[in-house]
Design brief:
By secondary structure, this protein is an alpha+beta fold. It is about 45% helix and about 10% strand.
Length: about 210
């Protein structure tokens, strides 16, 4: 193999690796995510034990987390304060989650027909016995176009729409679904606020006790 051939062979390997990484990152945003993919993303993964001894979970912190979740479990989405929304985001940061590009009709909280399959896949995944008993956060996000007040309300209505659909269509328990809206405050692509990737619904499994099973 000549130096020229080696160079292009190396380029091909590098490109293949880059495409593989991109495909993995875009799994939840391709618009056609399956129930299996959602389930895999939301299932807590068993902790990997290394040479060091794993630090045991802090029971006090777990108790505080459970108490907080119970205070927002039956709350209406629009009643959550900014502090409560931030606390939910902080807790969700370390939990299994997936971003779904669920589109809605223009200036509306009605699910677009093209996105119904994604919501159906979500319903099937959350109905799986392996996730029974978990509490899920359904967080609505918008892009940066429009006022903060308008986008906040729109994200809340859209999160409520997803919850209503899951409860009515799949019989999920409403108290196991905590809805929250973040408007345009937590953009996925901060450099491109108008990018459709920012218009998403994030689903988080807040109960990770199944990770130890």
């Amino acid at each position: 193999m000549t130096r020229f051939d080696k160079f292009f062979a190396l380029k091909a390997i590098t490109l293949t690796a880059a495409l593989s990484m991109t495909a993995g990152l875009a799994l939840a945003g391709d618009g056609n995510v399956s129930a299996g993919q959602i389930l895999d993303a939301l299932k807590p993964k068993p902790a990997t034990r290394g040479l060091s001894v794993d630090r045991p979970a802090d029971p006090t912190a777990q108790a505080k987390e459970a108490t907080f979740l119970n205070t927002v479990r039956n709350r209406q989405t629009r009643s959550l304060s900014m502090g409560e929304r931030d606390q939910i985001a902080e807790l969700a940061a370390t939990k299994p989650k997936i971003d779904l590009e669920i589109q809605f009709d223009y200036n509306s909280a009605d699910i677009a027909k093209t996105s119904v399959p994604s919501v159906q896949a979500l319903g099937k995944a959350l109905s799986d016995p392996s996730l029974k008993g978990s509490t899920f956060v359904v967080a609505g996000h918008t892009d940066a176009v429009g006022t903060e007040e308008y986008n906040q309300g729109l994200s809340e209505r859209r999160a409520d729409t997803i919850k209503k659909y899951l409860v009515q269509t799949y019989g999920l328990t409403g108290t196991d679904l905590v809805t929250v809206g973040y408007g345009k405050t937590k953009l996925k692509d901060t450099a491109n606020g108008a990018d459709p990737i920012n218009r998403r619904v994030q689903v988080v499994n807040m109960d990770t006790k199944t990770a130890s099973k």
